[in-house]
Write a structure and sequence with these properties.
This protein is mainly α and 295 residues long. Helix content is 79%, strand content 0%.
Length: 295
């Protein structure tokens, strides 16, 4: 029964992580009281292998199940009503900004925090322009260099598993890989291309798994020692995400189209998503305070 509960919590984390940009899966993990057991299991995988592995297996099975469901939902709707999905994503992102902006207050007078946010912004924008250039990232006809980059994308994005507030989907949006990964997961069982899909997804997951293990202790230490700088870095990812969404999905997308009906629905849905995210982040903020007081 305990493992089944862990599996269900994993489904929630996976769905949130991929389907709702702006809402961190690790933050939701705090809400459902699975965050600290997860970090403990990752950090002590070899020290307490049997217990840690059993917990992580059920959590990750749920995570991948939720991720598949979320990816299929987003990919299916996006192909038919792209503007609706884009405005919903932007609503979620902007709705989470006020809470993140409040987290920056303790570091506003620190030069290191401003150096961090400027550096991260420049790196992300440079990546968007010079590494993935102007086209949308695609997993078709990938060469060895593309797979190496994807491996390190997996290592990098694994940090979202252990840092509350750093969102997996927003990070992928900032790097330009969100739509490609969503489409890959949604069509992973396309048997006409299943070998290619498994190689690409496997490369990403190997990087993600290695990164989650290696970075868990390091990131915990960095967040504890450089909490303000980490908050500024997280905010930089959020600032870049709307730019990447609009640039990749609208400006640089020759197939983008919409109707007046989509525009109206999109605006309404965007506002709803903004309000929903704003309310959720306030509720989760209170939960985090309680957790910190009990640690």
């Amino acid at each position: 029964m305990k493992q089944f509960i862990t599996f269900l919590k994993g489904i929630l984390l996976g769905f949130v992580g991929l389907a709702i940009p702006g809402l961190s899966a690790s933050t939701i993990a705090l809400e459902v009281n699975v965050y600290h057991p997860m970090i403990d299991a990752i950090s002590n995988l070899f020290n307490k292998f049997r217990r840690s592995a059993l917990f992580l297996i059920f959590l990750m099975l749920g995570y991948f199940t939720g991720g598949f469901l979320g990816s299929y939902l987003i990919d299916t709707i996006y192909s038919i009503y792209p503007l609706v999905i884009i405005t919903a994503i932007l609503g979620f992102i902007f709705g989470g900004m006020p809470k993140m902006a409040c987290d920056l207050k303790p570091g506003l007078k620190k030069i290191s925090c401003w150096i961090t946010i400027v550096s991260v912004l420049l790196l992300l924008l440079s990546f968007s322009f010079f590494v993935i250039k102007t086209e949308q990232v695609s997993f078709d006809n990938m060469n060895v260099f593309d797979l190496i980059i994807l491996f390190f994308i997996g290592v990098f994005t694994s940090s979202t598993l252990v840092i509350p507030g750093v969102d997996f989907a927003v990070l992928l949006l900032s790097l330009g890989y969100y739509n490609a990964l969503i489409g890959l997961i949604a069509h992973i069982f396309d048997f006409s291309n299943i070998l290619h899909n498994l190689i690409v997804l496997g490369t990403y997951l190997v990087g993600y798994g290695i990164g989650a293990f290696l970075l868990s202790k390091l990131i915990k230490m960095l967040v504890k020692k450089y909490n303000n700088e980490c908050n500024f870095a997280s905010f930089a990812f959020v600032l870049v995400a709307p730019f990447v969404v609009i640039k990749k999905c609208v400006i640089d997308n020759p197939n983008f189209s919409y109707s007046n009906g989509q525009l109206i629905v999109g605006i309404i849905l965007g506002v709803i998503c903004f309000v929903l995210m704003f309310v959720l982040t306030r509720r989760i903020e209170k939960k985090e305070i309680v957790v910190e007081q009990n640690v």
